[in-house]
Amino acid sequence: MSDAAISIRGLRKSYDDLEAVKGIDLDVQTEEIFAVLGPNGAGKTTTVEILEGYRDRDAGEVSVLGVDPADPVPAWRERIGIVLQGTTLEPALTVAESLTQYAGYFREPRDVEEVIALVGLGDQAGTRARKLSGGQQRRLDVGIALIGDPDLLFLDEPTTGFDPSARRQAWEMIAGLRDLGKTVLLTTHYMEEAQALADRVAIIADGRIVAQDTPENLGDRRLLPSTITFHLAAGVDPSGIATIDGFGYAESEDGGRDVRIQTHAAVETLSRLTAWSLQRGIELDQLEVRRPSLEDVYLELTDS
Amino acid sequence: MRPISLALHEFRFAQKVFWRNPASVFFTALLPVIFLVIFATIFGNDQIEELDGVKVTTYYIPAIVTLAVISATMVNLAMNVTIAREQGLLKRGRGTPLPPWVFIVGRVGNAIVISAVMLVVVTLIGKLLYDAPIPWERIPAVLVTLVVGASAFCCLGLAMTVIIPTREAASAITNAITLPLYFISGIFIPENEIPDGVLSFANHFPVRDFFEAFFTAYSPKTVGSGFEWGDLLLVAIWGLAGFLIAIRYFRWTPRQ
Questions:
Q1: Considering its fold, how many domains does chain B have in total?
Q2: What is the pLDDT of residue A1?
Q3: ipTM of the modeled complex
Q4: Of A181, A198, B91, B235, which is least surrounded by CB within 10 A?
Q5: Which of A95, A101, A107, A141 should be substituted to probe chain B, the one whose Cβ sees the most B Cβ atoms within 10 Å?
Q6: Which residues of B touch A108 (CB under 8 A)?
Q7: Is A185 on the interface with B (CB under 8 A)?
């Protein structure tokens, strides 16, 4: 427990008759990047805002850096950084001014110049927030959250609405926080984001955690079958391979077949397929072997 | 003292943000001066019999000072604090070690300083363009009126953020409250043109009382030190009511 930056047991929260969080247990270790992944309305933001000290809870035990966030004392606030969902900047202040303003709130802030470099806004230091691009504004949001040199950083959907290149840049920056020794709790509804950044992922759906593991092992991904797909031209008789477990096909427009085999023994199956193909001189067009993606797991777990 | 240096820090940034916002600068700093010039041009150098023959231009100096102080305090805070709330800036600030009252004090301090600047600007323009006398011998009454009124209207501005739901609604609601009061309180139209019944109705609201206190302090016909304690008390009671509403119902998180 001493290693846990965040520890949650039996957390519950309702709004009127809507039960948003229905009993969550979660541990985030120090210096870990932890992603909470789930669809909109799953209870992500409610949970994170309880951890940040913005909301009270109905039941459960919560400890964030050893403090109950229901009583957010200033000394605790010195140690956490928060990026809210949606950009929150003063449009009239420049990058450097915004950071200087927030630096003044902390007893031992980081150097403003250093944070500007860290979030990659060196060329925009004198630009007012309103003139920054969406991606740059979000990086300034992260810079403001880092200015107090926090031990723990909350990032609530840091890249929602970004184009792919802005998202890549944001990911590089967030991955860089690992080198600073920060603990990061990130919420997202992007599968790739959790996969790219997180040491561990919890999938939350309908107020409960439905899976929690490393991105590789999540939802027993290793136990799910791989999928082999290829195309057979018109007139090819598939009866020699139709006995393989998990075999199935669909007629394609050119009169041939789109074959799809789900298998737990991908290597053995492939070897049978290629032997069959070589013996008879049959092409396996567009042959592809696919592991179950995190997305498959996610869609299955969240029923969406 | 750290709380004081924090409040000054916050005040400096409130100043920067204010002067960089074209809408704030226009409505708070320029519009009162434009009103003064327009009214003085329309009504010229007439004298108001009912007020011991005070010149109309002299009448408009305390009237426009009243308007300028209310713009810099109540209107400014109602608009800008609501906008900051809806942008999530208040919520973000609460997530830092900054004590919440420092945030408010920085903005209230900014509003009061701008009020004082506008009082000086309007008074000087009155002297230079219209030869309206500067009330040197009643400066204490002018300053006390300024401090009581500016503080009270800051509280009322913070209370107004409670009823303003969105940034879009901010200017409509503040105008709907202030403009009718300016008309019936003798800010826009000299009070001798306003029926007595309307004026006594206006007396229940702090705009009229604030103006009367300024008028007495400014008017060259005033005998004595120029303090209108009764009016100031009523303004202060309104301010206290606003303060209590703000303390009880102020919201730090966006409604939308």
A1: 1
A2: 42
A3: 0.91
A4: A181
A5: A101
A6: none
A7: no
